Amino acid sequence: MPEGHTLHRLASQINRLFAGRTWRVTSPQGRFDAGAARLTGRAPERAEAHGKQLFVHLGPDIWQVHLGLYGAFSFRGDESFSGADTLGAPRTKTQTLSPEYDEAGWIVPEAPAGAVRARVHVPNGWADLRGPSKCQVLSPMQYEAVTRRLGPDPLHQPDGQIDAALAAQFQQNLARRRVSVGAALMDQAVIAGVGNIYRAESLFAEGISPDVASAVLAEEQSAALWARLTAQLRDGVAEGRIRTLRPGEERRQPQRRHWVYQHQGTPCLRCGEIIRMRELQGRRLYWCPGCQLVP
Ligand SMILES: [Zn+2]
């Protein structure tokens, strides 16, 4: 599942390519016909990500997209329409296109391939949304209700800074949960944008066992965890992928990007203990029993 860094890149790309421009919106697959009719012919003002959710604001309406496990946007257009080809679940790259334009000067898009829930189109390109777990138009009240249930997003902090209020909110959310910290980090009401990889890698980096009760984490530990997740998510936005091993830390494994995620059964790069994996609430949890001791 795409984690928060992907959604923030997606929001930036939508802002760059679509904000302030009148777009056409369709639902080639038909499942978003009513929503598309409401959004088409208008100009999106801005897109924002909150955790794993994307919100595109158009006047009072808000287009909400949750990519879920399989969702992705793919972007196509002429040379002036630049950016990532796809953002979301991995998809095959389609061929570069030799653009054609209609009489109004709008690029003629390729026929939709597969189940395209929504297509947004501007004169120099278009984007196709496939496989989202949520795609709907919200009223301001509904938007307010959805975002109120989301925990703080570390990527909502000013560049290079820690927002003390958001960090405190995270700490209070952890303190109120009666689950392990490993389970709490996956709860989008505790912290928005963290998925399986950031959970494993942030707890490893801070030497916190995923089995520690969320409510008993010391204040310094939750502050350190917030700062760690902030740094890791920012790196993810900058690099376009999750890479928690920094240059020089790969130890003769140049392709390796993570300390523990998907490295079960192999020795920990830091302490040599064997990395473990088990299921927790249907998702795989990875940790090093040597570095992440239960106190
Ligand atoms: Zn270790």
Give a written overview of the molecule.
- This protein is an alpha+beta fold and about 300 residues long.
- The protein has two domains: about 5-150, N-terminal domain of MutM-like DNA repair proteins, CATH 3.20.190; about 155-285, Helicase, Ruva Protein, domain 3.
- It is about 25% helix and about 20% strand.
- The protein has helices at about 5-20, 35-40, 140-150, 165-175, 180-185, 195-205, 220-240, and strands at about 25, 45-50, 55-60, 60-65, 70-75, 85-90, 115-120, 125-130, 135-140, 275-280, 285.
- The chain has a five-stranded antiparallel β-sheet.
- The protein is globular and about 70 Å long.
- The model has no long low-confidence stretch (mean pLDDT about 95).
- The structure holds zinc ion.
- Zinc ion binds next to loops.
- The mean pLDDT is 94
CATH homology superfamily name of the largest domain: MutM-like, N-terminal
Gross morphology is globular
Output the CATH topology of the largest domain. Answer: N-terminal domain of MutM-like DNA repair proteins
Distance between the termini: 31 Å
Order of helices and strands: HEHEEEEEEEEHHHHHEE
For the biggest β-sheet, the strand order reads: 1-7-8-5-6
